[in-house]
Structures are given as structure tokens and as C-alpha cells.
Amino acid sequence: MFLAFTRTCVACVLLFSSLVTSAQVRDAEPVNPEGELTLARAIDAALRGNPDLVASAYDLSAAQARIVQAGLRVNPEVGLELENFGGSGEVEGVDALETTLSLSQVVELGGKRGLRRSVAEADLDFVTIEQRARELDVLAEVTTRFIDVVAAQERTRFAEEATALAQKTLDAIGARVEAGRSPEAERSRARIALTRALVEQRQAESELRSARYSLSALWGNPEPAFSTATAQLFDLRNVDSFQALMDRLEQSPDFVRFASESRLRDAELRLARSQARPNLSFSLGVRRFEESNDTALVAGFSMPLPVYDRNQGAIREAQVRVTQTEAVRNAARVRARAALFGLYQEMGAARARVETLRNDALPQAQLALDQTRNGYDRGRFSFLELVTVQEELLALRSAAIDAAADYHLLLAEIERLTSAALTRPIP
Predict the structure, then answer these.
(1) CATH class of residue range 2-73+111-276+312-424
(2) Beta-ladder partners of 296
């Protein structure tokens, strides 16, 4: 049931990530859900209050500012030049002073300003994809820790039942000892079993508290306010085929990021090539001759000669970066496919364990316990046989909880890898 919420939340993250990011920056109020906590509420709280997301949201504003800066023209320059003063003879003092006031402007050739803006815009796309990937990382982490809380709740409930069973066994044996039907040693062993069950219960309660704190930390609050995490741990949904998951792998932000990075690298290469073309600098000014009290216009033109520096090193680096991005994407694709295959196989094995334990092993263990308890009451079985059957049942229940938690944890990792909810209702 609760994994069905992941499908909706992933879609919301991909569709409204920019709106969520803006809300994170504006929302300074602490987020701490109360009452019953669903996965959807946990994800919403984390997207609004996660400290890492709040901090990374400023990267988008910084990238937008870089676009503004990249589109600006080169500033004109004003210059003042004094000549022929402070010398000796005819140029002593300021009698022969020549004062020139000029205004110069660099004219960029090769469309450098537009290419700089293209690089900044591609960088903004890349930062946006990075932000979406971070949000999906948070979503996956929330799902994982939420499952940990649900599993810890199940283990705590199971530990309480085990303690109650041990107490019930102790009471029954105590009655048999008082009636003279069992030795006192059996009551001592039953007390030891109860003590062990109480220790395991306290350990389960401690692990539950830790899981709750770990989950609430994702929305920036160290003190959890929710009462319980609501979900069905043993509600296992059908999963799409492995090939369908492989087809969706390229749509995840982890791979869309490479496409965005490729556009960024291409834009950087175009800019590097355009920077090999020299700029022109024009100047126009007024010169005043102190000696004759006359004025005249002066004009100038300059352009660097690309004899040594033709920006060939930057162009080569940009070309290497373009090739490197494709190589990195291919390596990531190989790793992701291998990881997806491994996760898919482990998830199938975990599902098989859950179904086998719940449909076959647990009913048989419960039947064996009932039969052994009845036989023990009639003196047909020893206390050791009764305890052994009880321990087998408890071990199977614990294994079922672990297998169900493993299934959902593996499914959460696959959902993060493919950036899509995989669960669908069982027909």
C-alpha cells in the first residue's frame, strides 16, 4: 500500500521540482508532522524541510545570476593621458602640456556574448537536473528510512508478542510445577526464556526510537512528533519486467544529467573557438594643447595579433571534455544496468522468501506449536521440545519481517535508479 504513494511522489518531484525548490527557500518554519505518518506525508515534509535541499536550492539562483552576467556587454573605458609636462627647457612645467581625454570600447567578434549566455543557460539546465537528482535522493532516503521505521514497529510488536508468549508459558509451567506434574527446573528455564524475551523487546524498542529519529532528521527536526508510521509491510505489489525497467533507466535524472552536461560541453567548445577570434578596440578622444590653447580629435584602433595564443589549449580542453562526457555516460550506463540486474534478482528472491514463509512455513510452525503445547499438557512432549518449537516459530516470524523489509528496501533502490514508481495493483 505505502509503496503506491511513491509513484505519486516521484511524479510530483519531477513535475514540480522548481516550485518545491522555491518553497524551500521561502519556508523558514520547522517541519515536523504529527499523528499517523504516511510515506506521502514524510516525503512532503522532507522536500519542504530537508536541510541539504534548502541549501542546494540556492545553486539555481546562482546559475540564473550567471546567465545575467554572461549576457552583459563589455564596459566602455574612459582614459585621461597627460604628455609633455614636468620636463626641462621648452617642456618645463606645464607650458607644453598636452591633455587627451578618450573613450574606448571593445567590440567582441564571433558572437562571444551570445555564446557565453548559451554556456550559462546550459549550466542552468545542468544545475536544474542536479537539483532534481538530489530531490530523488532525498525521496529514496525517506522511503528507505520510512521502511526502517515500519519494520522496527513490526519487530517491536513481534517482540511484545514473544514476551507475552514467554509469560504465558511461564504461567502454565508454574501451574504444572505447583501441581507436581513438572520439576522446578522447568520453571527456572521458563523464567530465563522470559528474561531473554524482555531483553530482546527492549532492544527492539531502542532500534525503533533510533529509526524514528533518523527519519525525522530528513526534514530537519531531531525530535519526531509523529505517533506511528502507517503502512502494510507485507503488502507486496507486482513489479514491471526487467526489460521495462531497463528501458526507463535512460529517463532518470542521473542520465538526463549527462545529456545536459553534453550540451554544456558543446556550448563551452563553441565559446572556446569563438575566443580564438580577436576582439577589436576603438577609441575616440579630445586632445588639448596647453601651449597654443587648441584642441583636436584623436582616434585609435587596436586588435591583438593571434601569433602565439590562438586559444588552442582551451579549444583542445573543451574537445576532450566533450569526449570525456560521453565516456563517463557509457561507464555509468554499464554500472547502472549491472546494479539494476542485481537489485532485481535480490528483490525477486526476497519476495519468494516472504511468500514461502507466510504461506507455508509460518502456518506449519503455528500448527506444530499448537500440537506440541497440547501434547505437553498431556505429558507427551518435554519442555525442551515445547521451547524448541516456540523458538522456531519466533525465528520464522522474524525472518518474514526481515524479508518483507528487504523487498521494499530493494524496490526503493530500483525506483531511485529508474526514477519511476514500479508498483501497480495486483489484478
Answers:
(1) mainly alpha
(2) 287
